[in-house]
Specification:
Helix content is 29%, strand content 19%. The chain has 343 residues and is an alpha/beta fold. The protein has 3 domains: 13-107, Diphthamide synthesis DPH1/DPH2 domain 1 (Rossmann fold), CATH 3.40.50; 116-226, Rossmann fold (3-Layer(aba) Sandwich), CATH 3.40.50; 229-329, Rossmann fold (3-Layer(aba) Sandwich). It has a 5-stranded parallel beta sheet with strand order 1-5-4-2-3, covered by helices on one side. The protein has a 5-stranded mixed beta sheet with strand order 7-6-8-9-10, sandwiched between helices. Bound molecules: iron/sulfur cluster.
Amino acid sequence: MPASPAVPPPPSAAVFPVWGPALFAAVRADGRRRLVLQVPAGLVRNAHDLAAQLREETGARVTLATRACFGACDFPSTDESPKADAAVVLGHAPIPNVPLARPTYFVEMREAGGDPSALAATIDRGGLPSRLGLVASVQHLDLVGPLTDALRRAGRTVRVGTGDRRLAYPAQALGCNYTGAESVAADVDAYLFVGTGRFHPLGLALAVEKPVWSLDPLQNLLEPPIDRGQLVRRRQLAVAVARDARRWGILVSSFAGQNRMPTALALQERAQARGRSAEILVFDRLDPRDLEGRAVDAYVNTACPRIALDDGDLYAKPMLTPPEFLMALGDLPLEPYRFDTYH
Ligand code: SF4
């Protein structure tokens, strides 16, 4: 009996906490000759220097992926960079359940900064509840253990949750997935997000029904809780505006980690069952100009949930997340508000 053809193993992910010699040595040892380098928005200014250093240290040809990227869900596709035999992706951890297009080196750009005792003292002065759930962006995950210890020494109960298969680490948050935080909801009275910026805390505040505080560990700066009620009311208003829409556009991204075609097809059936028309519109990176002039009353977006939640105002027609769409159809109640968790 002839042997069945061997199935090639899926492309592998290699993970590095920081940019530097360990990454360069791995690229050399793996014999990579052509690399595509992707940097997040915060590092665009340094991108050319980083590409030059990678070229010099590894001897590989390096091209830069220039399309804006927002997560490990939209690494450069083989169409965007067909000749590269590996990708180097900065600023993101791999998303475990997203298949890779080719071998990929993830450089998480971890930050060592933040004195746990000083941060715990700031939290004490901030008057946070005693039982806290800790959540962090990937850059600050190394602080979670020491900060947990410092907070416990100060008498607090601290819980760190483990999320679903879209999250690589305990305590980690993605802007579309806070399942780690949700897993400890019964044991905490508030959440503390450790990291910079408002992106993650805003999503967390929509995903959980407890106060969300934010701590910038580099500045030792504690931000007061986000007004969840205001966020929810804004989204409920968007639902109300879209409620009478008859013609819907269902948005589907082709990015490996943003593609929810099965969800889109299910939503299309649901719309039709409720007497609405619904067309599926496929894109890679969504641009408001692509939606101009369409005979559509409203959109439901199955790609990155944050497009509707954070950037919905950039679009001329209402844009809802899938749970909000079901609210608009009357298939889900407005309360409790449901965050569009991307699993
Ligand atoms: S889907 Fe959006 S929030 Fe989730 S990882 Fe991608 S860019 Fe971030």
